[in-house]
Specification:
Elements (H helix, E strand, L loop, with lengths): L1 H17 L1 H7 L1 H31 L3 E5 L12 H4 L6 H10 L3 E9 L6 E4 L2 E4 L2 E5 L3 H4 L5 E4 L4 H5 L4 E4 L1 H7 L3 H4 L3 E4 L2 E9 L14 E5 H7 L5 E8 L4 H15 L11 E4 H44 L1 H9 L4 H37 L8 H18 L1 H8 L3 H6 L2
Parallel strand pairs: 5-10, 7-9
Antiparallel strand pairs: 1-11, 1-12, 2-5, 2-11, 3-4, 3-8, 6-9, 7-10, 8-9
Helix pairs in contact: 1-14, 3-12, 3-14, 3-15, 5-11, 12-14, 12-15, 12-16, 14-15, 14-16
Amino acid sequence: MKQDVRENVVLAFDTLRTHKLRSLLTVLGVVIGVGLIILVAALLTGFRKFIDEQITGFGADTAWVSRFDQGPRIGRRPKEERERKPVTLDDAQAILDGCPAVQRVAASIFDWEEPHGIRYQKSEVSGIDYRGTFPSFVQVYANAVLKAGRFFTEAENAHREKVVAIGENISAALFASPADALNKEVLIDGSAYRVIGVFEKPKGGFGGNDEDRRVIIPYYTFTKTYPAAEEIGLRFQAYPGRLNESVDEVREVLRRRRRVPYDKPDNFSIQTQVETAQSFNDIIGGVALALIVLSSIGLLIGGVGVMNIMLVSVTERTREIGVRKAIGARRSDITWQFLFEAMTLTGAGGLIGILLAVGLALLIPLVTTLRATVPLWAVVAGLVVSVGVGLIFGVWPAVKAARLDPVDALRFE
């Protein structure tokens, strides 16, 4: 039996070598299908690692509170959302006072009506993450680590000092080094601020691996400069192991303060890092499903091509089949010969697809901000699927070859 298998494999590779171009064109669909499967698996694996860093970066025991529903959306927010009352600074204090499971709260205020930019001498950066906040920001946000300098104090916040902490990418765009940025005067919307700290580029957070564009000033300095700003977001930090409990407590406090009837849904949003990760996972899962369907079409096309070329091969080698049967080959021998040829053909296509996908997965992080890590199970699955396509679509040509009458086969011209 081992001898038969070895002989069939050798015959299969001989056939591939004899018809190189035909074989390559035949399995092109398999190459594309398997390559897409591997690439999707690599991107999903990379994204999951990114999610883990995201949770660690913002803090796995934290949650975000806003009047708007969180997560990806398309188009304008619903009228009901736009008409909700803003979250207030008093809400932050009520959460601290009324939620035993909450350790800290960081309130941030934004002005989203106008775009903002930061300038130093002739260099300028726009599209910044600009907010006013409290000193507790660096305690609640795990990825708010200072690379140089310090964060502002309670006294500087209370006295509305014009000081600012900037992100590492902002610093790199405006100054020679983070240390060089300290005590320099920058202009934010025309107002002068003294740089007192530079954040490290965050390792977690959506977009955090791409660039850190944070520009953060004291809360009361922000409200003095932008008196019309009222959009406040809260991030609270629970005591270890008490995140779910803290979410329930915060929901109860906010529903009571915002006078939400017991039979009505929340008119605010509380989202944990796990929920944020899950919402993005759902989107990526949908994209992955679409790509897998496309790869399945490629495999189907490749399988049909293999069946067609194997039927042509049966016709071309009718006399050979007759000779083999005349000297004692059984139907099963002929069947396995053609099945092995089909499986070798698609297996080779699958191997090419895997090599191309692995090459792309290595290239993607170098030219984009995406992650791609090829898991071993995807490589194994790609090989199994490709060989399986050859087995399934090679059955009919193999059976047809095995059923040929040896006498008629020998007379075939």
